[in-house]
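User: what does the whole thing look like in 3D?
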Amino acid sequence: MSLVNNDANAPLPSKFKPYTRQTIHQAPQWARMSEELREAVLVISHVLPFRTNEYVMNELIDWDNIPDDPIYRLTFPHRDMLAADEYALLRDLVLSGADEQAINKEVMQIRMRMNPHPAGQMTHNVPMLDGVPLRGLQHKYKQTVLFFPSAGQTCHAYCTFCFRWPQFVGMDDLKFDAKESSELVAYLKQHHEVTDVLITGGDPLIMSTRALAGYLEPLLVPELSHIQNIRIGTKSVSYWPQRFVTDKDADDLIRLFEKVVAAGKNLAIMGHYNHPVELRQEIAQKAVKRIVGSGATLRMQAPLIRHINEDPKGWAELWTTGVRLGAIPYYMFVERDTGPKNYFALPLAKAYETFQAAYQLVSGLSRTVRGPSMSAFPGKVAVDGIVTIGGEKVFALQFLQARNPDWVRKPFYAKFDPEATWLDDLVPAFGEKRFFFETEQDEVEEHKHGHKVVHMLERHDARIAPAVAHGAPDGRTVVGGRA
Ligand code: SF4
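Assistant: Here's the predicted 3D structure for the full assembly of 483 residues, as structure tokens:
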């Protein structure tokens, strides 16, 4: 097990120092990168967001192992994240000093090809208050509302695979953010079926404790007693654990957590850990202890990503260490269908094998983890197994969460496909024409759009003609898996 610290004598950074495309050349490690690696950073960061920080660079990346180091892959763009022709075109524009307009035109074309808002987030999950859509909120599952505070829409570093990438690159019309919590509170007062609020980003813990309190404290009022669980999604546990330990308002943050817990809420910190190296650092372990010591819970989740965390032993180490420190393994996700998906995606069959192998390596206390799970348009779908039934090899699937609660934990089956990487690559098993949930979903969509929708079987056939795979060039609406 390696504990990466490139200079054991260097003090741990205590003041947050980010690096972006404009400043990365100032980092001492820039000199250790080849021309090709530097070029990829400078070119691709026009399309996808790039931001890292001194702690990630000094403590988490092993610079003797770049570009294969997993945290390097996680935070630094690689040329294969774009199609070869796209990369070549953009490189020529950037290196020749083309004007901004020409670069932006090409950049936008590439971004729109990358499915910037998967799973119908912009069209299907936006709630209304008195007939007005609420920017900065999403309500997909009955019990849970997502809230995107405007001050929490950046991160301590950006992950190269992140499905929220459009939020970080100024695609304003595709951006979620809420300036204040008054609309959230008003909405929740009208929705007693909601028990959980997930405060998410970006990373809400990029905010000062004071700013965060401005969003959390209004949720503690007696009129919102139906809100039982407040979740905060964060990667600061890995990218900047100082947030909980040595930042000047770290103690205030822990006190804020205690206050939420004392108000009778379950405060769940949804910690995003991709690789065991993130939890090998002493300060990262202290952060876990402090979070758990406040009475909050810490759940561990992350997607399985090619080049970064394919090794089941790594997952087992991550979950086992987390459990020892008091955290709860929660989800292994399947990498979503957006951004440089082709670079990061693994077949569902491989995802299942990895999950199963990791699961077999850990004790029962770590087996709270679920997966591999796809956060797809109809809901969170887990691959439960690969089995042969009546002579047909199939994926056994189930909804862990769904737009319609009646679908949850209903087993269903898809033909085994060794290449499939997402739900809408799959077709029903046993000669069925459609998955059980598609009929109801199609009816809703047809009512909404007033024209025919394309269901999964048609789309699967259309994979041979990829022109229809990522949108609806003929005006039809595509539903079922990727939206
Ligand atoms: S920290 Fe989370 S929101 Fe931020 S880039 Fe990484 S995955 Fe995305």
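In plain terms: Confidence is low (pLDDT under 50) at residues 451-483. The pocket of iron/sulfur cluster is lined by residues 155, 158-159, 162, 164, 201-203, 235, 272 (CB under 6 Å).
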